[in-house]
Amino acid sequence: MIDKHSHVPIYLQIERILTEQISQGILNPGDPIPSETGLAEQYQVSRMTARKAVDYLVRQGVVERQRGRGTFICHPTQELKMALPLDSHFAFSEVASKLNFPINNKVIHLEKVAAPDHVANELGIEPGTQVWYMKRLRLVGEVPFVFECSYMQAEPLFADLTIEDLNRSKYQYLLSKGQSVKGSKKQIKAELPSEEVRVLLGLKRDEPVLFARSIGLLASGVPFEISDIYYNQEHYTFTLNATR
């Protein structure tokens, strides 16, 4: 029953009723739920309130709208969640390997360009110096987890970088050149993604993404790469060890 005097918003009360019907087996995967008009009439609320309830369930991945057919209970899928420590530096492959799914890299773009001023400043090189510019999508199985746009030093250390190297492992490539990674400095915030990022990560429209600006450091302490990293936060939990 809906309690219109409750402090709980009505749309969340409707959401809770539908969620309980799913957990009790009254509604099952593949079943339709009432239309927004039907929910409005059933609970004597406005259609806007009914739509908010359905929108909430869609965002939670409980139901999905099918154009021209209605809204249906989703079939459960295996949840892929990765714990990412914010106070440590790990390669994506090191963290993702714990999920026991194949890790795939998809290089979308790779070319040498003249370093923009802000990149040259962060990398400690002259503006206009040739650097690698790359876009790479990181997947676990077929699920997109991370999209990164990076500028990386080219001459003289990494002049022969190839798409094949990036599809395998950037860090393995660095090791083959006698270099290793000391760590990184990151600034992290939530933001609304561009259309490119939204599509590549499979995000819903207007869904925020966790964004990190990262400066990678070689073992010598020299910065070698600046990256804009976009995390599909649906598949992440973030950890931080704090000391007093």
From TrEMBL:
GO process terms (BP): negative regulation of DNA-templated transcription
Locate the transmembrane regions by residue number: none
- What region holds the HTH gntR-type domain? 8-76
User: Which GO molecular function entries does the Swiss-Prot or TrEMBL record give?
Assistant: DNA binding; DNA-binding transcription factor activity
Instruction: List the keywords (alphabetical).
Output: DNA-binding, Transcription, Transcription regulation
InterPro entries this protein is in? Bact_HTH_transcr_reg, Chorismate_lyase_/UTRA_dom_sf, Tscrpt_reg_HTH_GntR, UTRA, WH-like_DNA-bd_sf, WH_DNA-bd_sf
* Methyltransferase listed as a keyword: no
What Pfam families has UniProt attached to this entry? GntR (PF00392), UTRA (PF07702)
Q: Which organism is it from?
A: Vibrio sinensis
* Protein's UniProt keywords contain Nucleotidyltransferase: no
Q: What is this protein called?
A: GntR family transcriptional regulator
